[in-house]
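Field log, afternoon session.

UNIT: design team B
ACTIVITY: writing a sequence onto a fixed backbone
BACKBONE:
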């Protein structure tokens, strides 16, 4: 080391450094000893020295303590003896890891404080002395062995029954969960994450929570389920979004773009979707067979997108291969929309147009001319339809099996005669609220429609004569409703019960019947559920 460096170190003003750190009440002295490093002694100034008693009294320190700072230069050994002049160097050999550690018997004098702040500092300093004593007992020379010798506390988890089940069984259990529940299960552990995203569990999506951002959820799920095809999701075949009022055209665009194998979709009461998004959906999802847009007030018709129609050169390229369509409560659907629908959806077998009040007989004529494979049709509460529309329906092929004309009060016996004459395969007929229908048409219906199984004649002008015809020609009848038919008496009900032994459900509410008629039905039709309003029937 050069003399300039040593001179620079010797000229260090330690008093200034210590006064900056600990205050002006502390000073530093330096002693040189042979073969020993430099020692710096930190001490408090004498209160009576240099007339600084006022400053010292403010600090609250009465007695004097000293601490040493070890430097890098050599000095004598005499200072080592002075460091322990106040303590006894005699110690007990305490064994720790095979080595003796000296412990001092005599403790240094405890200072007294007049200041509460310094008194609190001293109480904490006692804790620091305790920690220093503990650290002195640790062999810090071999830290590697010390770290390796620490035993980690192992966390023991209680075993779950799923550890004893195979992956196939767990996937089978997960198959009973909804889409939201599967997403929650994927966050439990790595095993459940892997099994919850099994492709067999995601052939259908069910999102019925109105609080979710459905558009964002559809985008995330379809992207996550695109395993080998990054742009499309071929495993989803069924989507249920009933009641999702937050669904917009953006969500339908995601489905149309990423779900080409979609076959079944439920969009009931999705009031924010419009025609262009729905047209894009049915154009891209060429395998779509089931579509439910009931309650979607902005939907006026079903057609292909304009870009598809512009490229279609032949008629079969303009077809939508839907089999099931529910447009109930679509208040904007009129005859023009029904014409477009029937032209593009010629393979329809199930069509439900409940409470579409703008539809008239002209729209029903379009359906009858284009949808020749129709089996189920519901036009209940369409009060503008008359017997002329029913006559157009009767010209269809004899495949109609389900017909509901409830509350179409303009339909009379004339329309029922056409149905009875040409729809021989009819199995269900709902005429509730059609007060113009009487026993005359019921007789022809019972004679011609031998496959009839369910009949609703509530509030119709039917008497015991009509029940007698049903009992004679329709013995296989299983469900019958004569609610509020005031012309029905005990005689007609008893005769019906004696012949229709397979009756499963009978509605006789608001009918003037006795307990004897009720008991007769229970005696002959033992499995029949009777709906009534007479408290004496129990």
């Amino acid at each position: 080391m050069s003399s300039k460096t040593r001179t620079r170190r010797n000229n260090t003003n330690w008093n200034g450094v210590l006064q900056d750190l600990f205050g002006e009440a502390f000073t530093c002295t330096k002693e040189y000893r042979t073969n020993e490093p430099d020692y710096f002694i930190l001490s408090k100034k004498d209160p009576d020295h240099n007339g600084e008693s006022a400053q010292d009294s403010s600090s609250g320190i009465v007695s004097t303590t000293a601490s040493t700072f070890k430097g890098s230069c050599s000095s004598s050994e005499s200072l080592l003896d002075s460091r322990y002049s106040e303590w006894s160097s005699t110690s007990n050999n305490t064994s720790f890891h095979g080595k003796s550690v000296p412990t001092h018997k005599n403790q240094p004098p405890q200072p007294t404080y007049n200041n509460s702040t310094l008194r609190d500092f001293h109480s904490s300093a006692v804790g620091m002395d305790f920690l220093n004593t503990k650290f002195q007992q640790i062999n810090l020379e071999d830290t590697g062995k010390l770290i390796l010798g620490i035993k980690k506390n192992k966390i023991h988890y209680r075993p779950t029954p799923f550890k004893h089940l195979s992956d196939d069984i767990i996937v089978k259990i997960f198959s009973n969960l909804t889409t939201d529940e599967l997403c929650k299960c994927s966050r439990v552990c790595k095993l459940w994450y892997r099994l919850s995203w099994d492709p067999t569990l995601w052939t259908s999506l069910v999102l019925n929570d109105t609080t979710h951002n459905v558009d964002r959820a559809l985008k995330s799920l379809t992207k996550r389920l695109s395993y080998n095809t990054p742009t499309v999701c071929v495993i989803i075949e069924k989507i249920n979004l009933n009641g999702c009022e937050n669904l917009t055209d953006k969500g339908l665009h995601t489905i149309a773009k990423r779900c080409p194998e979609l076959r079944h979709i439920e969009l009931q009461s999705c009031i924010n979707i419009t025609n262009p998004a729905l047209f894009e959906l049915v154009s891209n999802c060429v395998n779509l067979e089931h579509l439910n847009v009931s309650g979607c007030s902005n939907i006026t018709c079903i057609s292909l997108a304009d870009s598809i129609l512009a490229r279609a050169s032949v008629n079969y390229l303009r077809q939508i291969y839907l089999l099931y369509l529910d447009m109930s409560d679509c208040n904007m659907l009129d005859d023009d929309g029904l014409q477009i629908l029937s032209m593009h959806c010629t393979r329809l077998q199930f069509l439900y147009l409940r409470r579409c009040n703008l539809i008239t007989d002209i729209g029903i004529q379009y359906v009858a001319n284009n949808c020749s494979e129709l089996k189920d049709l519901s036009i209940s509460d369409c009060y503008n339809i008359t017997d002329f529309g029913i006559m157009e329906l009767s010209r269809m092929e004899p495949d109609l099996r389900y017909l509901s004309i409830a509350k179409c009060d303009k339909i009379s016996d004339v329309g029922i005669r056409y149905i009875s004459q040409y729809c021989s395969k009819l199995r269900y007929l709902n005429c509730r609220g059609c007060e113009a229908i009487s026993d005359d048409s019921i007789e022809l219906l019972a004679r011609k429609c031998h496959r009839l199984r369910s009949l609703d004649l509530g509030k119709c002008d039917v008497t015991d004569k009509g029940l007698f015809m049903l009992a004679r020609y329709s013995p296989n009848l299983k469900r019958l409703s004569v609610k509020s038919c005031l012309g029905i008496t005990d005689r007609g009900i008893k005769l019906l019960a004696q012949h229709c032994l397979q009756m499963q459900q009978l509605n006789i509410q608001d009918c003037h019947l006795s307990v004897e008629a009720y008991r007769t039905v229970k005696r002959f039709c033992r499995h029949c559920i009777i709906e009534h309003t007479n408290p004496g029937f129990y």
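LOG NOTE: Residues 1-9, 30-42, 46-108, 138-151 have pLDDT under 50 and may be disordered.
NEXT ACTIVITY: expression trials, pending approval
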